[in-house]
Amino acid sequence: MASSLLLSNLSPLCVFFFSSLLFLANTTSFYGAGASASSTSFSTIHTTRNKDEVEALLNWKSTLDNHSQSLLFSWHGNNPCRFTGVACNDYGAITHLNLSHLNLTGTLDGLDFSCLNSVVSFELANNLIYGSIPSGIGNLSKLNSLDLCFNKLSGEIPPSIGTLESLRYLYLCANNLSGHIPTSLGKLGNLIKLDISQNNFSGSIPIEISDLKNLKSLQLWQNRLSGSIPLEIGRLTSLIKLDLSSNSLTGLIPCCIGNLTSLSILQLFLNGLSGLIPSEIGKLTSLTELDLSVNNFFGSIPQSIGNLTSLSLLSFYGNGLSGPIPSEIGRLTSIIRLHLSANNLHGSIPCSIRNLTSLSILHLFKNGLSGPIPLEIGSLTSLVKLGLSSNNFTGSIPHSIGNLTSLFLLHLDENKLFGSLPSGFNKLTCLSTLDLSNNELEGELPKDVCLGGSLRYFSIINNHFTGPIPASLENCSTLIRLRLEGNQLTGNITEAFGIYPHLYFIDLSHNHLIGELSWKWERCRNLTSLKISNNYISGKIPAIFGMMAQLQLLNLSSNSLSGEIPRELGSMPMLLELDLSTNSIIGNVPTEIGLLSHLAHLNLASNNLSGSILVPLSSCKSLLSLNLSRNKFFSNIPLEIANIQFLQVLDLSHNLLSGSIPRELGKLRMLEVLNISHNGLYGSIPHTFGDMLALTSIDVSYNDLKGPLPNVKAFNEAPFEVIQHNRGLCGNVVGLPKCNSIGSEKHNRCVRTKVIVILILSFLGFLFFSCTWAILVIVNHRQRRIIKKDNYERANDLDFMRILSYDGKVFYHRIIEATEGFDSKYYVGEGSYGIVYKAEISKGQTVAIKQTSSSQEDGEIVDLISFEREIQALMNIRHRNIVKFYGFCSRAQRCFLVYEYMERGSLRTTLNDDEKAIEFTWDKRVNVIRGIANALSYMHHECSPSLIHRDLTSNNILLDRHYEAHVSDFGTARLLRPDSSNWTLIAGTIGYIAPELAFSTMPTEKCDVYSFGIVALETIIGKHPGDHVSWERSSSSQIESPMMLKDVLDQRLSPSRLHFRDAQDVVLIAKLAFVCLQANPRLRPSMRQISRELCIQVPLEMPLSTISLKQLRDPSVKKIGAHRTDGKFLNYFSCVILFSS
User: Fold this and answer.
1) What are the binding residues for ATP?
2) What is the CB-side half-sphere exposure of residue 75 using CA atoms within 13 A?
3) Residue-wise pLDDT tens digits, 51-110
4) Distance from C-alpha of 75 to C-alpha of 94, rounded to nearest angstrom
5) Which uninterrupted H or E stretch holds 47?
6) Distance (Å) of CA 163 to CA 63, 145, 151, 166, 267
7) Active-site positions?
8) Which positions make up the signal peptide (predicted)?
9) pLDDT of residue 740
């Protein structure tokens, strides 16, 4: 009432003001209560969410191992925002989980991802998480970044990962994930970076990847992906980095790659990609790195490569690229690393290379590049590594190379460089690796080669360097590997070398070094190999060498060392090979040598060692070869030598050994070569030799052995030379009497004697006086007939390999008898030097008799003594691919050369007969060509002095029943005088003669190489190559439409159906054959190189049907095809290590 009274007395304005205050007070009270209720509700929701998140994390922590749980010690309580590696938003929800680099061990199976639906970043890289990726990871609906790299996760990527539509970064690299790449990844439309490299994913790249329009980085490298690169990849126009390297991808690079104009890095190396490098690659002008190494690309380098002016790395290493290096490469002025090695590139290095002034690494090794090394190379002053090895570079090394003062590695080996080294070499003080091996360089070595103190690897193998060892080498303590062998270096070895703490390999062999061995070598504590053979080193072997604890190989052979073998050498625990042969060492072999338990090869041949062969040598259980020949060892062969159970080669020849051959030697089941010739051994050859099944070569000649030969392959196939000069041996070898015939004769004599005794006793009483004289006459007559018959049979069975007499009357009559007076039915063929007949000299012994005219009065035959020496030299040649020459006799103005008989006749005969040619399959032809190469390699490089065939044709390549090649008519030309009227005939056969013989009458080994090229082509073509040879001599530019290889191969064997491996071999043979036919003999390879190349399986550069003769005439020999698909990773990185270490 009072209040109403008060209101009635107030003015209207005051009433309004007061009423407003009451309204505001009521309103504030209402909304305050509402806000309080809302806040309570919000707090309850977040408390529940945090509780779920905490529970999920703590439950997962409990599944980890104890060490991992201890690392997460902060994970306790109800506030996850304080946990290690956890970050929350303003409302307390977990948004970031970063547990990388903590070494956590466990699985993800215990983590409830459904409780972490606010997480935008989940990083667990560099831990030890194993097991599979749970499908529940798809519940992280807000996830922006997922990083599980460098763990041990396995299994497949769950398809549910495709539901993470907000995902921008996905990293699963360096795990053990497998299976196919899921197509559901194509649903991640916001993805910017995808890295699933270094796993085991297989199958093809899904085309759904092309739906990732925002993708900037795609890394699938080092998996097992196969198939081709999908064309749809050209739709990823935002890509900056594409790395598909180290997989098994095949096919072509799609031309649509040119659409990826934003691309900065393209890595496709170590795959099986093939075809041409598309010119569209030149559109990728943003590229800084392009690596297509170790694939099967062929064709030329596209000129459009010059458009990529931003490139810092260009690598085409290990393909089949051909043609010249394009001059446009000079436009790559930003290039730092250029790798074009191991291809078939030819031509010269373009002068435009001088523009690449930023170049740090230039590798062009293993190509067919030729011409001089350009002076412009000196403009590349930033070069650190230069690899030009295994090419055909000629001329001298340019003096401008002295400008490359930053050079760390220089490889010029395996070329045809000649002349002296420029003085600028002394400026290359930063060199760590210098290899000039296998050239024709001469003059003295640069004296300051190690002035900078950085030299680690130095090799000049097989050149013509003269003069002293560079003075700077004496104190070059950085040396690790030093190879100076095969030169003409002089000087005193005692003073030229110092102490090298890091040196592990040194070879000074085949030089003209003098002096004595220094104690300093012992101070090279890491030395594993020391070779100083074939020099003029004198003095004694230092006893201190026994302290070289790391030494594995010691070769001091072919020097002038004297004194005794120091017993201290038995203290080298790591020694594997010891070669002291061909010196003047005296005394006994010290017993301590038997302590070398790891010794595999011991060669003490050609010294003046004496005494008995030591029993302690049998303690060297690891010995594979033991050569004690040409010494003065006496007494018996020790029985204990049979305890060396892995022995493969045993040579005790040319000693003074006596006694019988121990039967225990039969225990050497691994023995392949046994030579005990030229001793005083007697008795029989033990029957235990029949257990030596690995034995392939035996020589027991010049002893006093008797009895039957063991029934083992080595004896059954042995030539007479290896058993001759043993008076009592018998067996099935030509020249030895049959063991059964000797027994039969003794038995017959015994029977006859008994008959005579019985007759005498029966008629003794009655006819004693009257018949005694008659009986004696009869017995005497019969004995004379037996002796005469025996002598005749012995003469008939004389080993025709021993008949060197010009007056071989008995053997001549045997030839006449065996051929029935040279009846035409025994005619085999006609060669360059006469008519060939087949003759069975004795039972089971068939030979080929070559009849030639012997015009001695015309002076065609060399004098008797030198001629006999020639014959003996030819008879001593033994090689599986050379026809055995048994001997010679002359009678009635006719000469007879006796050879091993070959069942299938000549190679030409086989090729000319369609039926035989069809049976002569590709693998057999390849084997024949390898056999010919092996024979010529043996003649040129393993005979001393080297021997030249002079007339190699398909007519004097003979085939045995297994289609094994045997070179014949070898040495026949040597039996005639060089100045005889027949010299043009001797020097070769038309169609096989090397072109240089038109100007010279002195054949060389390279003439044989040329003839080999003709024969090799003839074998795979099926007839004489004819015009193809003239093409080789002419310029390739004159051939408008090059003929394809498949069209010239022997069509009787259907070249289009060639097995892949046979195709590889045939292409390699054709390639090598054309190299052999080069007009310049200096450019032809040696037969040793050819023989080695033919032993290597080289995958095809391109399909056989696409290879032309023009391509095969590429002069490169070093690199015939692309690298093998298997082992690519090793091949590629072994190269990188070599040129980057």
Assistant:
1) 850
2) 22
3) 888 999 999 999 999 999 999 999 998 899 999 999 999 888 999 999 999 999 999 999
4) 14
5) helix 12-63
6) 27, 14, 23, 9, 30
7) 951
8) 1-27
9) 67
Whether 345 and 368 have beta carbons less than 8 Å apart is answered as yes
Which residues of 775-915 form beta strands (DSSP E)?
Answer: 827-831, 834-842, 845-853, 885-891, 894-900
Look at residue 187 in the predicted model and tell me its pLDDT.
Answer: 94
Contact between 331 and 359 under an 8 Å Cβ cutoff? The reply is no
237: number of Cβ within 10 Å? 12
Looking at residue 452, its pLDDT comes to 85
Contact 810, 795 (CB under 8 A): yes
Q: Which residues are annotated as a binding site?
A: 850
Residue 836 CB partners (closer than 8 Å, separation 6+): 827, 828, 829, 830, 848, 849, 850, 851
pLDDT tier at 1132, thresholds 50, 70, 90: very low
| pLDDT for res 870 | 60
**Residues near 768 by Cβ (< 8 Å), separated by ≥ 6?**
none
Which parts of 892-1000 are beta strand (E)? Answer: 894-900, 957-959, 965-967
Q: pTM of whole model > 0.85?
A: no
CA dist 646 and 319 (Å) reads: 43
Cα separation, 414 vs 403, in Å, equals 23
CB within 8 A of 479, min separation 6: which ones? 450, 455, 456, 458, 473, 500, 502, 503
Closest CA to 1006 of 1098, 940, 1054, 1055: 940
Residue 290, SS3 per DSSP: strand
Contact (Cβ atoms closer than 8 angstroms) between residue 1115 and residue 368? yes
Bridging pattern class, strands 577-579 and 409-411: unpaired
**Calpha distance 213→190 (Å, rounded):** 8
217 and 239 Cβ atoms separated by less than 8 Å: yes
Amino acid occupying residue 1009: V
More confident residue, 81 or 19: 81
Q: What tokens were used for 1124? A: 């093998």
Other Cβ atoms less than 10 A from the Cβ of 10: the count is 12
CA atoms within a 13 Å half-sphere pointing along the CA-CB vector of 1032: 28
Please give the pLDDT value at position 267: 97
For 734-790, the DSSP string reads TBS--HHHHHHHHHHHHHHHHHHHHHHHHSHHHHHHHHHHHHHHHHHHHHHHHHHHH
Note whether 601 and 624 are within 8 A (CB).
yes
Which three-class secondary structure string do you get for 811-833?
Answer: HHHHHHHHCCCCCHHHEEEEECC
Specify the 3-state DSSP secondary structure of 363.
strand
pLDDT, tens only, 783-837: 555 444 444 444 343 344 444 344 455 566 777 777 877 777 787 777 656 788 8
Which tokens belong to 855?
Answer: 């015009």
If one counts every other C-beta atom within 10 angstroms of the C-beta of residue 680, the result is 13
Cα-Cα-Cα-Cα torsion 476, 481, 485, 490, nearest 10 degrees, comes to 10
* Dist CA 484 CA 531 (whole Å): 10
Residue 690: Cβ-neighbour burial (10 angstroms; 0-12, 13-18, 19+): middle
**Structure tokens that stand for 279 in this block:** 């010119």
Q: Considering just the CA atoms, what is the radius of gyration of the chain in Å?
A: 43
Number of other residues whose CB lies within 10 A of the CB of residue 507: 21
* Residue-wise DSSP of 206-241: PGGGGG-TT--EEE--SSEE-SPPPGGGGG-TT-SE
- Reference 120, options 164, 158, 157; nearest CA is 164
* Cβ-contact 188, 159 below 8 angstroms: no
CA distances from 455 to 384, 422, 426, 452, 476 (A): 14, 18, 12, 8, 7
Q: Is the dihedral of CA 205, 210, 212, 216 positive or negative?
A: positive
